Backbone:
């Protein structure tokens, strides 16, 4: 503690001593201190002058809503409000349930007063709070204020609810909300909609009361079938129908499993609910304008969320594929090979649009089935090296390509790879595909690191207990491996969020950065060269998002680490 | 060649050469006389190195076999072959009549019936103690959650740590962790327990609590193979002691015989080294 210099008796203050010891220890130190101090001071002066004196921030203030949602029709704002509140409610429930789980595992937390909790929350989320306040301060109407208050209230209330109600009720609520959401969005005819929603609500309540009784399960299955039929009848694109039917299938499977008292956990329902929520949101938001009419921060956020949620499972599969070759993971190997090989023609078929009258679709589907069957049998033993080669090849190919070039290819050169009558997907879809394929390769490498960090004894212990290779992977290996790589994964997701601006640059749709570009040519600001103002604002918004993600991931990491190692 | 030597006992009147033949042959069993584990001509190679040469060993139902020997002698490899954590390259392995082959169903069948306890515990750190114990019954035996938890609590009581059920493995001492590992293996209601140096990673003061648990199991009639360096334990619990060196079974015998009147020079050398370096045996 005590410095070796000894105690000066001449009464110099502590601050002076600190200065001398750390900044002016030798003449060279002093010189460096003075020069860098001058440089930093000058830069700081210029920055402050820009922020408070010369900057013309009215360009941001006037175009605030444009920065947030682009040219989304202002009559349709209620759609965004509904989605934002639904997301807040969903996240609140999930968080509340998570808190409850932690409490069950680690005992009740020491009670803290709400003032203390509020202060902790402030310390935790100060960048987000500050950013939100800054935006609100620039708002010209009271509506944004109301929206923020509603978001905070919704998430707080649903978090409290999620903390207090039993898991079973959450499962039922999510189940009900899932179907209600799906119906609200997809059912075209108003009276039919009302009746169905009423039935679902009644079934949900009844189910919640009677819990997993067979009549409720029958009701679920009937409802699943009904919504499936509706989805088929409704005026949807083919792949939307496939998605809906897939979800209905999942719901039915889950209901049947539930009937047999097998564990269908809250996390499963949270993931399923999240999926339905995302799809419903997309459907609701694209109805008036289509994807390409979105813009601003909403666009960047959507690209990031879609990219993150799609690239993660693909990356994990690739990592498992690259790790395969261990002879004990034979069945896993078979399944993975089947998914990878069968998925390729299936994906092409879905992207082309499934049409059973079209011979190419039929060919592709048959190819998918054949590839999958081949992959399953071949992947189990002798050809695991093939699977590994496919994974390694994919990962190394993608990691050797610049993201911007991939985006440009998908923007401009995609047409050369497909037949002329091919209906190329919209720009946003293409951007999402590129982000997914690109980030999956990096996620795969991160997850592989996590897999390798696990001691071999963990797999051995699971095998010795008789757990199948698939269960060993999903119950023992992945939960630990993923927990070990949370920081790296979040880092990758942060860079994906930031890279969404590249998509705007490559493809020219109205993301936040391009909005900034466009508004500079408005009459009021033309010729004023306000590039610093708009780019600084965009930068700040991204910084708030990224720093919040990063801090929350550190917190999650600490929480998950409690008492487990 | 062993037909004339029935039973386990050593008759005093036999010539020393014949007695050597009796104890060098490990296919004779103790316990109830039915074979639970049969190893015949088992060979295991790691690259050019042969870890097990022609291992023949039969373990009877309810028999406790303790395997000792210098490190690198193939003790662990042998018992790891029995539940296919290592794949043997030659010979046959049967557990309760099921032969260990490439067929994944046979492997799973044998693993379900065979509990294993590792030197380094290998508990699952992301699961609570109770979840560690109930995982396999629920996932493999398809026991409902409540029944599995009752079973788990009963087993944790059996190994004398029911109050730790909600904790995580990292919060327990080494001895407690190893007892949880034993409970976890027992939860599958195995017919055979394999112990791979269960006390080697423990602090000295925790060794006894684990050995006591294993002794309890032995007295309840569990079929067990225990690889260990604890000579006192071997002497107390074993029906037979197997001495391995350089990938072969050098000598087999009852504990009294083994520790007081070993026949092979290699055994004598090992025992003298053990006894000079430790006073516990």
Residues:
């Amino acid at each position: 503690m005590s410095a070796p210099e000894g105690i000066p008796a001449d009464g110099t203050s502590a601050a002076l001593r600190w200065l001398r010891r750390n900044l002016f220890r030798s003449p060279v130190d002093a010189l460096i201190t003075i020069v860098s101090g001058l440089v930093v001071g000058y830069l700081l002066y210029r920055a402050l002058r820009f922020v408070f004196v010369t900057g013309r921030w009215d360009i941001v203030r006037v175009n605030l809503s444009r920065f947030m949602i682009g040219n989304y029709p202002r009559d349709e704002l209620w759609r965004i409000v509904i989605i934002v509140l639904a997301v807040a409610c969903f996240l609140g429930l999930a968080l509340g349930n998570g808190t409850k789980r932690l409490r069950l595992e680690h005992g009740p937390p020491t009670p803290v007063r709400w003032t203390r909790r509020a202060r902790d929350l402030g310390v935790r989320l100060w960048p987000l709070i500050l950013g939100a306040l800054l935006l609100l301060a620039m708002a010209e109407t009271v509506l944004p204020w109301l929206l923020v208050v509603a978001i905070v209230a919704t998430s707080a209330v649903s978090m409290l609810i999620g903390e207090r109600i039993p898991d079973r009720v959450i499962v039922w609520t999510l189940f009900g909300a899932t179907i209600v959401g799906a119906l609200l969005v997809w059912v075209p005819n108003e009276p039919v909609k009302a009746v169905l929603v009423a039935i679902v609500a009644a079934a949900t309540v009844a189910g919640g009361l009677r819990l997993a009784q067979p009549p409720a399960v029958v009701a679920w299955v009937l409802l699943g079938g009904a919504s499936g039929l509706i989805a088929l009848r409704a005026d949807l694109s083919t792949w939307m129908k496939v998605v809906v039917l897939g979800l209905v299938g999942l719901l039915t499977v889950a209901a049947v499993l539930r009937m047999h008292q097998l564990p269908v956990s809250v996390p499963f329902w949270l993931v399923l609910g999240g999926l339905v929520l995302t799809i419903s949101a997309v459907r609701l938001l694209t109805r008036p304008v289509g994807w390409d009419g979105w813009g601003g921060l909403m666009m960047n956020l959507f690209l990031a969320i879609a990219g993150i949620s799609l690239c993660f499972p693909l990356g994990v599969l690739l990592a498992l594929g690259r790790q395969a070759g261990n002879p004990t993971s034979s069945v896993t190997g078979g399944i993975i090979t089947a998914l990878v090989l069968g998925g390729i023609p299936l994906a092409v078929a879905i992207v082309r649009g499934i049409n059973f009258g079209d011979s190419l679709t039929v060919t592709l589907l048959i190819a998918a089935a054949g590839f999958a069957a081949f992959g399953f049998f071949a992947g189990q033993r002798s050809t695991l090296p093939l699977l590994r080669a496919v994974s390694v090849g994919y990962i190394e190919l993608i990691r050797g390509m610049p993201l911007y070039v991939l985006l440009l290819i998908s923007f401009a050169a995609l047409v050369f790879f497909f037949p002329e009558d091919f209906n190329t997907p919209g720009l946003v879809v293409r951007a999402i595909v590129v982000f997914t394929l690109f980030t999956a390769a990096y996620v795969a490498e991160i997850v592989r690191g996590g897999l390798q960090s696990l001691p071999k004894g963990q797999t051995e212990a699971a095998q010795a207990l008789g757990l199948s290779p698939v269960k060993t992977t999903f119950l023992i290996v992945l939960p630990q491996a993923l927990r070990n790589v949370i920081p790296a994964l979040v880092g990758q997701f942060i860079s994906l969020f930031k890279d969404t601006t590249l998509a705007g640059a490559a493809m020219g749709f109205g993301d936040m950065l391009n909005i900034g570009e466009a508004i500079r040519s408005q009459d009021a600001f033309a010729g004023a060269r306000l590039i610093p103002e708009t780019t600084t604002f965009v930068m700040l918004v991204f910084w708030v998002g990224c720093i919040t993600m990063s801090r929350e991931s550190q917190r999650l990491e600490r929480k998950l680490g409690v008492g487990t190692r | 060649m062993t037909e004339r030597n029935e039973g386990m006992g050593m008759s005093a009147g036999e010539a020393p050469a014949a007695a050597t033949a009796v104890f060098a042959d490990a296919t004779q069993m103790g316990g109830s006389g039915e074979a639970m584990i049969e190893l015949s001509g088992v060979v295991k190679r790691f690259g050019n190195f042969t870890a097990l040469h022609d291992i023949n060993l039969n373990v009877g139902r309810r028999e406790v076999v303790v395997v000792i020997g210098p490190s690198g002698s193939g003790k662990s490899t042998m018992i790891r072959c029995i539940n296919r954590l290592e794949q043997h390259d030659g010979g046959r392995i049967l557990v309760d009549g099921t032969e260990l082959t490439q067929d994944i169903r046979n492997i799973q069948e044998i693993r379900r019936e065979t509990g294993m306890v590792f030197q380094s515990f290998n508990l699952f750190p992301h699961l609570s103690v109770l979840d560690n114990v109930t995982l396999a019954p629920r996932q493999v035996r398809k026991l409902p959650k409540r029944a599995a938890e009752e079973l788990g609590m009963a087993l944790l009581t059996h190994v004398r740590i029911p109050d730790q059920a909600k904790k995580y493995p990292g919060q327990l001492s080494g001895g407690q962790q190893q007892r949880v590992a034993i409970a976890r293996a027992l939860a599958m209601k195995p017919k055979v327990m394999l112990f791979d140096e269960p006390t080697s990673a423990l602090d000295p003061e925790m060794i006894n609590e684990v050995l006591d648990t294993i002794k309890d199991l032995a007295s309840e009639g569990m079929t067990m193979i225990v690889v260990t360096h604890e000579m006192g334990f071997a002497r107390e619990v074993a029906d037979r002691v197997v001495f391995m060196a350089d990938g072969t079974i050098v000598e087999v015998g009852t504990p009294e015989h083994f520790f007081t009147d070993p026949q092979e020079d290699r055994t004598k050398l090992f025992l003298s080294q053990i006894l000079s370096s430790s006073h516990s045996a």
